[in-house]
């Protein structure tokens, strides 16, 4: 079988060999519980603390402000529910956006049932929030603003520094889901005035099922998981030592040669977009033309179904996505594409290709060549396209 062309790095990334190598001893001989007092336990404890330092360094935080979780979804749930419950006496209003990941949106919807008020900010055609609408939405009941750093579907990067400044001025906590941004954007939580930040290792070539929440010292937050005293009494449960070690290594590698990697990804991304536009008609780019993640391409092909497109690509050995991993498989078009104003029928024809370390120029060209054939074949079957062709 020929090699798979993997272009779904926003869904997950392959584990780097160097990361696996650092994890393996903690799945074998170094299996001690970090809470145990004998040296086998101490070894695990040390490894966890070294990883914590690496994660903290990557975002200019203090190690004591990093709390390991079971992934990005848990960190999002914790940030929002934890702040909501701990600050109920100050207010019950939360501000987020319409294009957040479901880990944020569904958490907010859950809190609405518990008596919290949530404002879901609109976004413009590029997926950017309106800073004035944000400022106008803040009331004396507002306790939290949760806006993602970069969108997982369309790659749009939000004006995080301005949001942080507004939050600080108004005395409101600011949480950002930075799962897609880590490794692609230099993040300094002090410079950006971020109070809480979510990350997930499997989006930057680390293992799945491990993430972290950065919590600025002094932020009032309840635990999400109760039990033992791990993570300074804030997140109970025996630490996922191999996962944590892997996350530490992965984040260190993510910021090595970071400018060069981004330049390469941006070049490949632009080449892919340009070639698609050159060779296929009735196509539109979703997301911001420049203020977007280096590896993100999201386009809509009119007159075709995203699902059929993905299946045909799969048969050609190409892994892509129609939106987020969570919504593909459902018939509803993506909430993100609807929020940027696409009509249902066009949102259905979306394709997300997210590039990563392994992708090459040859792969880009091969994928475009395949796309040209697949899109033409699928459009042959579309009565709407036949009509448009006649008019032309
Ligand atoms: C993948 C992702 C998540 C969820 O992370 P998990 O580790 O899969 O729970 C949350 N937010 C964004 C933006 C993501 O891309």
Q: What do these coordinates show?
A:
The chain is α/β, with parallel strands linked by helices. The protein folds into 2 domains: 5-13 and 258-391, Aspartate Aminotransferase, domain 1, CATH 3.90.1150; 17-254, Type I PLP-dependent aspartate aminotransferase-like (Major domain) (Aspartate Aminotransferase, domain 2, 3-Layer(aba) Sandwich), CATH 3.40.640.10. The protein has 14 helices and 12 strands. β3 (93-97), α4 and β4 (117-121) form a beta-alpha-beta unit. It is globular and about 75 Å long. Bound molecules: pyridoxal-5'-phosphate. Pyridoxal-5'-phosphate binds at residues 71-73, 76, 101, 103, 148, 152, 177, 179-180, 200, 202-203, 211.
CATH homologous superfamily placement of the largest domain:
Type I PLP-dependent aspartate aminotransferase-like (Major domain)
Intertermini distance: 41 Å
Give the amount of beta strand, in percent.
5-15%
- Tally of domains: 2
Helix count, DSSP H or I runs of 4 or more residues? 14
Poorly predicted runs of 5 or more residues: 324-329
The side-by-side strand order for the widest beta sheet comes to 2-8-7-6-5-3-4
Bound heterogens, unique? pyridoxal-5'-phosphate
Quick summary:
With 392 residues, the chain is α/β, with parallel strands linked by helices. It has 14 helices and twelve strands.
């Amino acid at each position: 079988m020929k090699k798979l062309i993997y272009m779904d790095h926003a869904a997950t990334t392959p584990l780097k060999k160097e990361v696996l190598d650092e994890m393996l001893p903690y799945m074998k001989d170094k299996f001690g519980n970090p809470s145990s007092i004998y040296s086998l336990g101490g070894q695990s404890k040390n490894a966890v603390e070294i990883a914590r330092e690496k994660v903290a360094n990557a975002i200019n935080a203090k190690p004591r402000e990093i709390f390991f979780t079971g992934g990005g979804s848990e960190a999002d749930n914790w940030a929002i529910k934890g702040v909501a419950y701990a600050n109920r006496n100050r207010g019950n209003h939360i501000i987020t956006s319409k294009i957040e990941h479901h880990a944020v949106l569904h958490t907010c919807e859950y809190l609405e049932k518990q008596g919290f008020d949530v404002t879901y900010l609109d976004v413009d055609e590029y997926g950017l929030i309106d800073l004035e609408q944000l400022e106008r939405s803040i009331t004396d009941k507002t306790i939290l603003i949760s806006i993602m750093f970069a969108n997982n579907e369309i790659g749009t990067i939000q004006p995080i520094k301005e949001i942080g400044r507004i939050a600080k001025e108004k005395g409101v906590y600011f949480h950002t889901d930075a799962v897609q941004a880590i490794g692609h954007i230099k993040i300094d939580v002090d410079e950006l005035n971020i109070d809480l930040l979510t990350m997930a290792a499997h989006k930057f070539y680390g293992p799945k099922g491990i993430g972290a929440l950065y919590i600025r010292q002094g932020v009032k937050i309840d635990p999400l998981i109760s039990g033992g005293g791990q993570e300074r009494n804030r997140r109970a449960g025996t630490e996922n030592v191999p996962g944590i070690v892997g996350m530490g290594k992965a984040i260190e590698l993510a910021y090595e040669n970071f400018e060069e990697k981004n330049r390469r990804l941006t070049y490949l991304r632009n080449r892919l977009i340009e070639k698609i536009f050159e060779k296929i008609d009735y196509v539109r780019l979703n997301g911001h033309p420049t203020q977007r993640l280096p590896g993100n391409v999201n386009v809509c092909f009119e007159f075709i179904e995203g699902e059929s497109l993905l299946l045909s690509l799969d048969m050609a050995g190409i892994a892509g996505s129609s939106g987020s991993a969570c919504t593909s498989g459902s018939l509803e078009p993506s909430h993100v594409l609807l929020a940027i104003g696409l009509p249902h029928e066009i949102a259905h024809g979306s394709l997300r290709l997210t590039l990563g370390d392994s992708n090459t120029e040859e792969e880009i060209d091969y994928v475009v060549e395949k796309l040209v054939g697949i899109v033409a074949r699928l459009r042959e079957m579309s009565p709407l396209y036949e009509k448009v062709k006649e008019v032309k």
